[in-house]
Amino acid sequence: MSEPVLAIKNLTVSFPDHLVLNDLSLQLNQGDFLSVVGQNGVGKTTLIRVILRQLAPQHGKIKYHPEFKRMKIGYVPQFRNIDEEYPLSIRDFVGLNLHDSRLPWLSKKERQKLDKIIKQTNLETIQNTPLGDASGGEKQKAYLAQALINDPDLLILDESTASLDNVRKFELLDLVKEFNEHQGVTVLFITHDIELAKDYAHEYLLMRHGNYQSGPIAQFKESDLEEAEHA
Ligand SMILES: Nc1ncnc2c1ncn2[C@@H]1O[C@H](COP(=O)(O)OP(=O)(O)OP(=O)(O)O)[C@@H](O)[C@H]1O
Q1: Could you give the CA distance from residue 78 to residue 216 in angstroms, rounded to a whole number?
Q2: Mutate to test the pocket of ligand 1, among 18, 42, 52, 192 (most ligand atoms within 8 A of CB)
Q3: Helices 108-120 and 166-183 meet at what angle, rounded to 10?
Q4: Which one is the CATH code of 1-72+153-164+184-231: 3.40.50.300, 3.40.50.150, 3.30.1360.120, 3.40.630.30?
Q5: ipTM of this complex > 0.85?
Q6: Structural domain boundaries in the chain
Q7: pTM for this model (two decimals)
Q8: Alpha carbon of 59 to those of 24, 54, 55: distances in Å?
Q9: What's the CA-to-centroid distance between 39 and ligand 1, angstroms?
Q10: What is the model's pLDDT at position 225?
Q11: Strand 154-158 and strand 186-190: pairing?
Q12: How far is Cα 71 from Cα 153, in angstroms, rounded to an integer?
């Protein structure tokens, strides 16, 4: 795959009262693991909303890989508690976006797909647990499995490890790393956790109000983030 999965050029987004993204360019190639860092309010969520096609930019170009009939994006949100009364089991929740067939029930192929992702994300033993009864780490794994079930071209982790303890954070990102390294899943990881970004990402994008810096994660300097925070 020689063309990038996603190429963003000179993106500008403003809301009536202020400019949020200013001339941002970004390229993601297949198998990249990019960490997006920056203080609150610099436009990380806005960028994701543009990539998810929920928000149209005022200027700039967004190009998805030409071989994709439709860009498939998996999205794992930040942890939020789910009501104990939530009726679906972990398995049902993971399978919610399976929609290959027109049958009102899952086809054999879909059940196999579901079995496979449940196994790959280590949810086998708890798959019948109601999602509302699962721990925070298990819920995030269920979100990850749901995001991966349709073989996404791009996986977005939107502060997905925030509020998890260290063990669960590493568990979740070890799984993501597995899919990134062995299945070539391209990852965009928004985080405030610099240590985690350094441990797992290959590249970084540091967003500041109106200007951006990027490069290999090994070259990321925490002083750059501190400078951005005090700018
Ligand atoms: N729909 C909107 N209308 C007006 N302003 C908005 C809208 N969405 C976001 N903003 C503003 O744009 C700026 C960037 O918001 P955004 O949520 O993208 O930042 P962020 O980097 O994701 O922040 P955080 O790290 O706190 O999640 C903020 O000042 C926010 O108030």
Answers
A1: 25
A2: 42
A3: 130
A4: 3.40.50.300
A5: yes
A6: 1-72+153-164+184-231, 77-150
A7: 0.93
A8: 10, 15, 12
A9: 11
A10: 74
A11: parallel
A12: 6
